[in-house]
Every structure is written in C-alpha cells, then in structure tokens.
Amino acid sequence: xxxxxxxxxxxxxxxxxxxxxxxxxxxxxxxxxxxxxxxxxxxxxxxxxxxxxxxxxxxxxxxxxxxxxxxxxxxxxxxxxxxxxxxxxxxxxxxxxxxxxxxxxxxxxxxxxxxxxxxxxxxxxxxxxxxxxxxxxxxxxxxxxxxxxxxxxxxxxxxxxxxxxxxxxxxxxxxxxxxxxxxxxxxxxxxxxxxxxxxxxxxxxxxxxxxxxxxxxxxxxxxxxxxxxxxxxxxxxxxxxxxxxxxxxxxxxxxxxxxxxxxxxxxxxxxxxxxxxxxxxxxxxxxxxxxxxxxxxxxxxxxxxxxxxxxxxxxxxxxxxxxxxxxxxxxxxxxxxxxxxxxxxxxxxx
Amino acid sequence: xxxxxxxxxxxxxxxxxxxxxxxxxxxxxxxxxxxxxxxxxxxxxxxxxxxxxxxxxxxxx
Amino acid sequence: xxxxxxxxxxxxxxxxxxxxxxxxxxxxxxxxxxxxxxxxxxxxxxxxxxxxxxxxxxxxxxxxxxxxxxxxxxxxxxxxxxxxxxxxxxxxxxxxx
Lengths: 350, 61, 97
What we know:
The complex is a heterotrimer.
Chain A: H1 2-23, E1 29-41, E2 48-57, E3 69-74, E4 77-86, E5 91-95, E6 101-102, E7 106-113, E8 117-126, E9 131-132, H2 167-193, H3 198-229, H4 238-259, H5 263-291, H6 312-348
Parallel strand pairs in A: 6-9
Antiparallel strand pairs in A: 1-2, 2-5, 3-4, 3-7, 4-5, 7-8
Chain B: H1 2-8, H2 11-17, H3 20-58
Chain C: H1 2-31, H2 35-61, H3 70-95
C-alpha cells in the first residue's frame, strides 16, 4: 500500500505542476521606453519637452489611468516624469521633464500603478545629449512602492517572458538526472568493493539507463529555451557543451556494456567507467560553470535568474516539480531494476 | 523585434483566450497518466513473473 | 612567469590525457574489443580537456597575463586531479580476477 502511495503521489504532484505551469498567467512588465521624436508642451514645466512612450506587457493602465506614475532612477537618484496621456492598457505617453545637467547617462525606468504594482525596466533610458554632472542632485519625489493587486501570477522577466514556464521542466529534469547518476555512482562503488554481487551492477545499469533519458529531455528543453531567449538552438557555451558531453559519456557507458561478453568482467569494467563518468559530470556541470563565464543562468556575470530570483508563485510550483520528477525518476529506475532482475532469473532457468 | 511581436500578438491573450493552454495541459496530463498506467502495469506483470519464478524454484523438478 | 604558467597548463593537460587514455585502454583491452572501443569511450571524455586547454593555451600565447586566465588553469587542474586520482585508484581493480 505504502509502495503504491508514493508513486501515485508523484503522479499527482506532476499533474498539479503541469496544470499550474500552463494555467497561471504571467505578470505585467515593461517592454520598452522609446523616444517618439516629437516635442510636447508640458503643463507642469511650462516648456516644450521631448515625448517618450512607455510600452508595457500585460499591464492594466486603462484602469485608473490617472494614478499611473512614471519615474526614472539612477544611482539612488529618482525623478518623476509627467504622464501626458494613457493611450491604452499597455501604452502611455510621457514628457521627459528632466533638467539639462544630469548625474548619469543611463537610467532605469519605473512605473507605479495600483493594479500592476511597481515595474522596473533596467537601463530603459539612455541620454547621450545631456551634460553629465556627477554631483547634480534634485529633491526626491514621493515614491511609494506598490505591490501588485493581481492574483497568482509568474513574474515577468525581460527576454524570458512566457518561457519562464520551462523552468518547471528543464531544471527538475536535470536535477533528476543528477539524482539517478548519483545512485549509479554509489552502486558502482559498491560493485567494485564487492565484485561478487551482481545486484549492484543491475542498479548501476538501471539508473544510468533512466538517467540518460532525463538528460536527453533536459537537453531538448534547454535547446528550446535557448532558441527563444538567445535566438539559436545551440550556442557554443561551456555549460551547454558540458551537458552534451555528459550525455555522450553516459552513452559510452552503454556502448561499453555491449562490448563485453563475460558478466563479471562487464560489471567491473562498467563500474570503473561509471566512476569516471560521474566525476566528469560533477566537474562539467557543477565545477566548470563557476570557473568560466557562461550565458547560462545561475552563473557569474549573467542577468536573469542570477540570484535565482524565484518569487513565491514560482516556488509554489518549482519545488513540487523537483519532487514530482524525482519521484517519477525513482519509480522508473525501480521498475527497470526489477526487469533486469527478472530477466536474469529467467535466463538462469533450466 | 520580439517586443513588437509581443505587442501586436500578446502571447498571454492568445494562449489563454483561445483555450490552447487547456489543450496543452490536457495532452501533458494524458501522457503522464499513460506513463503511470504503463509503469503500474509493468510492476503488476513483474510481480506475476516473480511469483512464477519463485514457485518454480521451490518445486523440485 | 608567463612561460611557467604555460608549462603548467601543458603538464596538466599531458597528465590528464595520460591518465585518461591509460585507463580507457586498459578497459578496452580487458574487454577484448581493440582500439575502437578506446576511441568511442575516449572521445567525449577528451573533449572537455581539449576545449579548456586550447582556450588556456591561446590565451597565454596571445599575451594575456596569466593571472587573468588563471581560472582556466584552475579548472584544468581540477580535471587533471580528478581524473588522475580516480585512474590511480581504479587501475588495479581493472586487472583483478
């Protein structure tokens, strides 16, 4: 009973994960802050100022258009811009009411709205025609950070946008592969220390066989993600090459097993190779990314997910996803293991 | 480029309003349930086979 | 200093290659499958070493100061250390009967 329970639980968790992954909407964000090359009469300043357009993604500026506020921010300095008009839910026109001498060239753009909360567009504004005076200061406007009034939603990330849902597939699949290869590693050590026992060899094969599938799926989901965020199915990157090499190394394990006929010898050689494979896996996927710069998130000098900025909505799906995939992987491993054992017993039948 | 695409055709609106999200969830859940069914069935058959093997081992031939 | 750093990278790569290929040749000779198996098994394992050592070597030869590319050397060292130690431990196991 207990044995059936955790398997059913794993499947249920994954059903929940899939439903949440696909059905939770994406939160609002800012796409662009662009110069429309027109001059507009500012009522506040009483002079002509350049006109800019803020473009949002999934924002609700048509509700309560009067309470939309737009700010620019740089190095702790904050300035309010004048909202001339709100065109629709995602477009608003702003007058660039900034003085001629500024403390910086590059500015973050912030919008404040009671429904969408405070949104940030990093380096959304770049001014090259102003006088840069690092000491210039002005009185800070009143700025209260809003939190959004929307229901459960995934956070908007620039460039990633809707593909953030892939987080629930790509990352847990690799975690599960790590777990399975870890099982294989332990089994191989046991096999080498106690060569007469065939059970450990079965364990190692079963875990590697299932683990390779998870690795391949991890590669495929990663490739899909790369197509959307970086624009290519495959980029020459240490992390990506490392992942591919790892899968190839484990395919080599299966080739090696095919090449040896004697069962005892096969168990020993495969176990030795498996230790190598696991060390390569750890070095390539866990050590290497910390030593070299990579496009892949979670590594040094890289925006987006850098601090693994999971918010509560993502966490509520991501952690169950990790557990669910691991349970499914373990289950698949156990079934494969039992198949191997039954196979062996049948072969031994007179 | 991507920005203009997203503005003219916001993925959110299209994906959710057309009901495509539900189709995707449906297919994913179906695959998952199929896999669960297959695994449970495999376990059942393995149990049968193990039983058979055990009885064969115990009966003197 | 630059020369020494280059030499260190070279030695590290050589040791890694030697350790890896000896163990793989031992495996394929025990398997009785000849040199083909060494090539098949060795290729994916060799790729990371080749990639990282060529990058380190070109960096040094292009006149980049060794300390600026030392992370490659560190990684190469980790790879060599891992493969060398493992090869040293595993080698006797391969020949046991």
